């Protein structure tokens, strides 16, 4: 307990926190993904899943978008992380962030991935949260070069649901914003069957070690607080204020 509290105090962070045109010839045919999708459905029993995502890649100048296969093993690892560790686990969140950092994904891709890693009810929650975030992006874009882009375009609603057109019509920086909004919406979903207290009410019990307490607190803050800049300060404040007496004494005694 003392060692964990000491590491947190000295570092002031938690170990598991960090933080063109497309030609038809460039787009793989749907049959390229038939066997991959079948394999994924068989391995994970994802009965409601749609086609796997086809991530966008760019050249060194950020132009000439092209499509590449997203191997089904990528989805397999995400599903396995949820199954083994839980949707709210630090491991899944890190893996999801790493995956989204590696691939440039269009709205079509995001809407294809979500049903493969989330339950039906979680997909509904995810899409609602995602659309609210897209509305915030739309307001943020007002007065700039992307002011004319609608939420429907950013979400890939029909008739804007063609992934090739999405990659061509939406600027790369906007695709990054849309993707990040989708990722944040996923990590804000409360795991099924797990009640959650308001983050300010999460307290360390007298017999609980420091790390699990911080884990619970971090997960709640991630799901309940949208302001990324406020999260570290809130975590540090609540970690001390809501720690048990022993940990609070140990933290206070440190330089």
TrEMBL record:
Positions of the Retroviral nucleocapsid Gag protein p24 C-terminal domain: 200-254
GO biological process, one term: viral process
Top-level taxon: Eukaryota
Matches recorded under Pfam families: Gag_p24, Gag_p24_C
Xref: Gene3D superfamilies: 1.10.1200.30, Human Immunodeficiency Virus Type 1 Capsid Protein
PANTHER family assigned: ENDOGENOUS RETROVIRUS GROUP K MEMBER 24 GAG POLYPROTEIN-RELATED, IGE-BINDING PROTEIN
Protein name per its UniProtKB record: Retroviral nucleocapsid Gag protein p24 C-terminal domain-containing protein
């Amino acid at each position: 307990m003392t060692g964990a509290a000491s590491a947190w105090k000295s570092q002031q962070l938690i170990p598991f926190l960090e933080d063109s045109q497309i030609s038809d010839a460039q787009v793989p045919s749907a049959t390229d993904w038939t066997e991959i999708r079948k394999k994924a459905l068989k391995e994970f029993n994802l009965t409601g899943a749609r086609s796997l995502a086809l991530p966008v890649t760019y050249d060194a100048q950020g132009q000439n978008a092209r499509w590449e296969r997203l191997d089904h093993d990528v989805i397999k690892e995400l599903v396995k992380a949820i199954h083994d560790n839980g949707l709210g686990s630090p491991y899944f969140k890190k893996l999801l962030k790493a995956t989204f950092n590696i691939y440039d994904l269009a709205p079509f891709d995001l809407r294809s991935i979500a049903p493969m890693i989330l339950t039906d009810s979680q997909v509904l929650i995810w899409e609602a949260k995602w659309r609210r975030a897209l509305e915030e992006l739309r307001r943020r874009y007002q007065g700039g070069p992307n002011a004319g882009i609608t939420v429907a375009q950013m979400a890939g609603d029909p008739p804007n649901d063609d992934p090739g057109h999405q990659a061509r019509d939406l600027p790369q920086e906007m695709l990054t914003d849309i993707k990040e909004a989708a990722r944040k919406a996923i990590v804000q979903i409360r795991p099924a069957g797990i009640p959650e207290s308001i983050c300010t009410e999460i307290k360390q019990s007298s017999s609980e070690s420091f790390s699990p307490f911080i884990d619970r607190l971090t997960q709640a803050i991630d799901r309940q607080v949208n302001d990324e800049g406020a999260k570290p300060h809130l975590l540090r404040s609540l970690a001390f204020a809501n720690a048990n007496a022993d940990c609070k004494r140990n933290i206070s005694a440190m330089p």
